[in-house]
Amino acid sequence: MSRNEAESQFDRFLDEWSRRDFLRGMGGALAFAAFAAGGIEFLEACGGNPAPTTNTQNAVRGGHVVEGQISDISNINPIFINDVPSSLVGYLVYSRLVTADGKGNLIPDLATSVPKVDSDQVTYKVTLRDAKWSDGQPITADDVVFTYQLMFDPKYKAVTSRFRAQLEQYLASVTAIDQKTIVFKTTKPYAPFVISFMNLGMLPKHIWEKLQPAEINSSTMNQVPQVGSGAMLPVKWDKGSQYQLKRNDLFWRGKPYLDGYVTKVVPDAVQVANQLKTGEIDVGNPDLSQWDSLANVETINRVSYVAPSFDYYIQNLDSAKTPKAAIFGDVQVRKALLTALDRQKVADKVYFGLAAPADSSVSGAQWVHTTPKTQYPYSQSKAEQMLDAAGWAKGADGIRAKNGVRMEWELRTNVGNKVRETLITVLADQWKQIGANVTTKPVQFPQLVTQLTQSRDFEMILLGISEGLDPDTTQLWSSKSIGGGALNGAAYKNPKVDDLLDQAVQTLDREKRKGLYQQVQEILMEDLPAPLVTYPKSVWGISKRVKNFNVAAWNGASPRPWFKDVYVVDGK
Amino acid sequence: MIDQLAIDEIQRAGTTSAGITGRRAKSYWGESWERLRANRIGMLAGYVILFLAVVAILAPVLSLLVTHVQPDRQDLDSQFLPPGPQHWLGADETGRDTLTRLVWGARVSLGVGFLTVTMQIIVGGCVGLVAGFFSGWVDNVLMRIVDMVLAIPAIFLFILMAILFTPNALTLSLIIASVGWGGVARLVRAEVLSVRSRDFMLATRSLGASNVRLMGRHLLPNVLPVMIVAASLGVGAIILAEAALDFLGFGIHPPTPSWGNMLSNAQTYFAHSTWLVVFPGVMIFATVLAANLFGNAVRDAFDPRLR
Amino acid sequence: MLAKFVLRRALAAIPVVVGVTVITFFLMHSTAGSYVPGLALNPNLTAKDVALLRSQLGLDQPLWIQYLDWTGVAWLVERVGLGGLLVGAHGDATPGLLQLSFGQSMVDGTSVSSQLFDRLPNTILLTVTAILVGIALSIPLGVIGAMRRGTRVDHAFTTVSVAGVAVPQFWLGLICILFFSVRLHDWGLPFLPSSGIQTPFTGGDLLDRLAHLIMPATVLSFVYLAIWSRFTRSSMLEVLSQDYVRTARAKGMGDRRVTYVHALRNAVIPLVTLVGLELPGLVSGGLVVEAVFGWPGIGLLAYQRALAYDYTMVLGIVTFAAVLVVVGNLLADVLYAVFDPRIRLA
Fold first, then answer.
1. CB within 8 A of B194, min separation 6: which ones?
2. When you count CB atoms within 10 A of the terminal residue's CB, does the N or C end of chain B come out lower?
């Protein structure tokens, strides 16, 4: 390729990857040389999982893509978004200040660069690039300030945004300095601020300010807005059926190649696989059990990667809530229970090979992930020895007991997730082999959430967590997060962990933060209040006629900064 | 559903209740039995149900002596094994034996079917008897309650109740019964209304019989055929309802086997492990078909209007 | 007399409707009451967020207050100035059932009636088509069975109709999808679409919509088929043995004419009453079929929102369906009374 072409490709490469640590270390010239020498693979290898690439050399304009989703959108207004399909469409319609690339690094969206905190550790200055709303109006600082006011200003208290409580706690003020500059001040140093609160779509003030606060909650613009700033714009929403979008010619990244895009509601993941085969949809997440059957379908590419999520089981350690805490209270028992689980086999058989056994308390896709020194390789005999040593002797019926407490409990998970429902029966069976009598019970999801986060009247629960971009896990492990809707259902209390988590949230230096979270991971692997079992993979079927559909760990359903370059080879 | 079947056939067959001779109960039953026995298809269906019930009761024996495994015994290495010497009807996604689960599943499916039908008949029958017999405000209140329950579409009621708690066999029977008793109550009440105006009732009352005696000794036997018909036609519908609830996620969950949950679980694996779908499907089909055929035969034999 | 009858029946229907609202409301709410509908398990959400949202949705008020709110009684009470009676309420009451408002969805803020009435036509389309298919199939099955009574054809038809009702609906639907969509596509043949009401972008025309409709409607029609075909058969048999049929034959009318023109018409008319019996169940009957085929009707909506504990939406749909049933029965009673004077006097 010519030098010019190479340079523009390299710029795009940097855009997509942001200036990573290793690039800085290497020196830009060296990096470029490696790139020009065809060394993308080399650089990718340095950075970890290979990122999908964008190639628009043969891009065709026109055509549309149909993506299958299990559920319909509910609300695509950025201040209300709470589910995956809404998030997917929401990002396509509303640009954000910053967004993330496939590896979880922040990249600028409407902001010209990812904001860095000032020396006072609480001030962030954001400069907007030149961009327009789809109705031609410029996107200004007023729009940004207005969007945040909806979420935390007392004047808009009637607006039921789920960010209100957090913003009221962390955001001190947001002010427009001029047409293109905004200054954010936090109440105290808060490392997740940019990732958590600038990763939101912006609303057009000139459209929304006409509504009364209470009207905002129920406005139809929450589902089908007239004005947006993303790659696509809403055309029509057929409730329960499909959501149709069209190209936004004024998109600041450039005109997208596709004419149109639809998310189509498909009854379940098995049908997603069926419809990928028949061509009724172009893209979708097939059920894990159908993965093999898609291998030989000529029209489909399969993509899978480790997603930022994990499946784990929570042991109730609160003896005030359940007598079973007497079983789980002993750390040796907890270690034995984990040792008794053949997690590799589970990953192979229950997830059909589409998962990896977990080795820490965060997924492999998180940048703070480390593999703690303490591990618990599967060994049924070792588990039995540990339980014997801990004083849990087997009774005549093969069930262990100690001080009159039998080793039996109920393991719950949520109805509707086939993998997890099978998983609990498998785990129960593996524990039965070592003398624990475990019964299983799937429970409706809302009730399970209430049992975990409010009433905490459960014995053991198996759940899945989708991680956020920021590695802060206060909600999961801090003693502040017990009950009241927070996720520390185990009632795990470790002052050292609390302290580390508090520090980490206020530490703005990336390396220092990483060190703190790694200490947390080491401690959690020793204490095992809620051991992780597997890291499930994200699986996709993508029609071969769709190009540049670059889903990756943090660019799965949303955000999709690469979307504008998606095209279909036949232009239809 | 099936209550409709009973209602419409009865309504069509004779719109007036006058003109039916009140025969003595004994020969009526005897004669009805003979008519039933003469219906070969019906009797065959009845035997099938009986056979399945016996097999269900003997499930532990099968586990002990025939297949040597319990229905929840897992073996991940045998995942999806096709029918063969080790697993006569194949193995499912955690290596559990399909044959064993089918037999134990009969316990659950048939058990739910019979238990639910019994509850429906008892509750619906009592309500219908009392309402039809006493009339007046008792009738009004009871029938309004029945109207309320019947106004809410059954499937919605199932969903509302099932999200309350994860059903086991007993609570599932309660849920389904609480929806279906209304139809039985209406049927029984209609029958009571027609029977109680007959001469023999007036005669017995004038002889000084108490209310309870009238209801239990004289009304009930005449109303019983309708209840039996409703029961036999209802079993099939209940087994199907249990399967539908499993599909929607509200029924009985593994590892407890029921034909319904085996069938809906296996749908995912249809492509590569078709037998997992075929066997429970065949069991449900055969049982419901047999129940319906037997129910029709019972109605043909016992319904006094089809004389 | 008729007016009195109608009035009596209508008054009797009111407590039924009230009872329905009470039953559905307390069933729906007597679950884990602290769950906030629509919130995913989010590691970034704090306890304060959850509490705030609960409060904004009014879920932290006492249950009886929430009931009065939803039914619109609270709104009335406040209008007449007695708002102080509503101990434990916060905020102003919004219009409820009595003011013909179903409220807002707790999951996404959309108005319940907009979702309900937007998706209702889909359900009606499905169930009405299923009824039409049921009639279209029942009549030939029943008539031919009657005319060839006792033969193998008769037994075969009876078996088909009885068998159709002996398989679980979801299973039948999934088998149809696997065959008519996936298999036919694999063989390179024209295939039926497997879910939804129309093809995105390229669809929407009549043929496309029919192609999407035909499978779910046929699967749904099997329920009706079993009953109606056997009913038609016995009805046909009864008519064929009537005097006027024999008279027509004696007069020398051709057998076919007798059967197809006179007997058929009279045999089919009672079928209308049976079809009429199905009308109250029109909006809820297709739930399983809607779930299998992703048909965006209100049955599916109620099911999905029930799983998400979207109280207002579920209560709105169930109440709407129940009121339809009550009104439908009321109309049916009135119509019978119009035609049969004996009933009015009862």
1. B17
2. C
Tell me whether B269 touches chain A (CB under 8 Å): yes
Residues ≥6 apart with Cβ < 8 Å to A161: A79, A80, A150, A151
The alpha carbon torsion through B112, B114, B117, B119 (nearest 10 deg) reads: -80
Contact B94 A349 (CB under 8 A): yes
Residue B42's beta-bridge partner residues? none
Chain B partners within 8 Å of A426 (Cβ): 74, 76, 94
Whether A446 and C37 lie within 8 Å, measured CB to CB: yes
- Residues of C with Cβ-Cβ distance to A413 under 8 angstroms: none
Residues A312, C63: Cα–Cα separation, whole Å: 35
Kindly list the structural domains of chain C, giving each domain's residue range(s) and its CATH number in brackets, ordered by start.
38-105 (no CATH), 118-339 (1.10.3720.10)
Cβ–Cβ of B244/C170 closer than 8 Å? yes
Please tell me which of the candidates C28, C227, C291 has its beta carbon nearest to residue B248: C291
- At residue C316's C-alpha, the angle toward residues C313 and C319, to 5°, is 145
Of C270, C281, C307, nearest to B12 by CB-CB distance is: C270
What is the chain C residue with the closest CA to B143?
C16
Give the integer Cα–Cα distance in Å for B126 and B142: 11
Of B12, B159, B244, nearest to C168 by CB-CB distance is B244
ipTM over cut 0.90: no
Give the minimum alpha-carbon distance from A270 to chain B in angstroms, rounded to a whole number: 6
Is C196 at the interface with chain A, CB within 8 A? Answer: yes
In sequence order, the β-bridge partners of residue C111 are: C104
- Judge contact between C70 and C313, C-beta under 8 A: no
Residues in C closer than 8 angstroms to B288, CB to CB, are 165-167
Q: pLDDT per position in chain A (572 positions), as tens?
A: 444 444 444 444 444 333 343 334 344 444 444 444 433 333 333 433 455 788 888 889 999 999 999 999 999 999 998 889 999 999 999 999 999 999 999 999 999 999 999 999 999 999 999 999 999 999 999 999 999 999 989 999 888 888 888 898 899 999 999 999 999 999 999 999 999 899 999 999 999 999 999 899 889 999 999 999 999 999 999 999 999 999 999 999 999 999 999 999 999 999 999 999 999 999 999 999 999 999 999 999 999 999 999 999 999 999 999 999 999 999 999 999 999 999 999 999 999 999 999 999 999 999 999 999 999 999 999 999 999 999 999 999 999 999 999 999 999 999 888 899 999 999 999 999 999 999 999 988 888 888 998 889 999 999 999 998 999 999 899 998 898 778 999 999 999 999 999 999 999 899 999 999 999 999 999 999 999 999 999 999 999 999 999 999 999 998 999 999 999 999 88
Nearest-Cα distance to chain B for C95, in Å, is 23
Residues of C in contact with B145 (CB under 8 A): 19
The runs of H, that is alpha helices, within chain C are 2-29, 47-56, 63-71, 73-79, 112-147, 152-164, 169-176, 184-186, 206-240, 243-250, 255-256, 264-278, 287-293, 298-307, 311-339, 341-345
Query: How far is C11 from C114, CA to CA, in rounded Å?
Result: 29
Question: How many angstroms away from the CA of A66 is the closest CA of chain C?
Answer: 7
Say which of C13, C30, C284 has its CB closest to residue B155.
C284
Question: Tokens for A2?
Answer: 């010519």
* Contact residues on chain B for C168, CB-CB shorter than 8 A: 240, 243-244, 247, 260, 263, 281, 284
Question: Which string of DSSP letters, residue by residue, matches B1-55?
Answer: -HHHHHHHHHHHH-S--TT-----HHHHHHHHHHHHHH-HHHHHHHHHHHHHHHH
Q: Which residues of C touch B240 (CB under 8 A)?
A: 166, 168-169
Distance CA A553, CA A556 (A): 6
